[in-house]
Amino acid sequence: MYSTRPSFFQNIPPVVKNLLIINILVFILMALLPAAERFFDRNLALYYFSSPAFRPYQLFTYMFLHGGFMHLFFNMFALLMFGRTIEMTMGSARFLFYYITCGICAALVQMGVFAIYINNLESLLPPDVVQHAISEGFDILQRGYNYNDPDLAQLNAFVNTPMVGASGAIYGVLLAFGFLFPNLPVYIFFIPVPVKSKWLIIGYFVIELLYGVSGSADGVAHFAHLGGMIFGFLMLVYWKKKGVFSNHWFF
Q1: What angle do CA 52, 57, 59 make, to 5 degrees?
Q2: Is-above-0.85 flag for pTM?
Q3: In a domain? residue 248
Q4: What is the pLDDT of residue 244?
Q5: Is residue 7 part of a domain?
Q6: Which of 60-74, 201-215, 226-240 has the lowest average pLDDT?
Q7: 105-129 pLDDT per residue, tens
Q8: Domain span at residue 26?
Q9: Residue 149, domain CATH
């Protein structure tokens, strides 16, 4: 009797497998159908709370949209490489809860940072101008334009530019890997020697923090990454105290 080894795809646990499928299918659909891209961007991407395009469910749905192939590739690669181990360690139900919670909390942290910037900009502008920019600015951006006034243009961009991507949840997964397997060696691109996972995760955190506080205008939601890591850490600490995990302490 011959026995066959399961394929790599069959060895992927169910939550990670379905997350990969959903994210990839959504990306393909948006790439092939302009109408789907417009619909998803308008309804499923995450807009700031005061934007006319905001809907509460976007705090969940934004995690399944990506801004380009490389954005999708790196997120799904990290999910595959690290998420499968975390799901097999946590169990599928707990991993799904952890992943979604990290993604939602990441969005809330980024929205909180946006609120600080938006409040500062609103203090520089007359209230009626602010209200007009918030209500009309979405349509202006959709036509490829923005306001000439730099403060008004920046306010409109913060309020009416959507956020997409699973990065906040993915950074929570990376944090979980470093927490549960702190001394496991990990190989990084272009670095010839392995690095303990705990130092890798700390390095990621520091880099994201530096980019975030520097106000880097690179179009990356650095505080969402930090939010996913912070709330992931808090959940893991809570579960550890409850005896869910028996690993060595993170530090």
Answers
A1: 90
A2: yes
A3: no
A4: 78
A5: no
A6: 201-215
A7: 999 999 999 999 999 998 988 888 8
A8: 14-241
A9: 1.20.1540.10
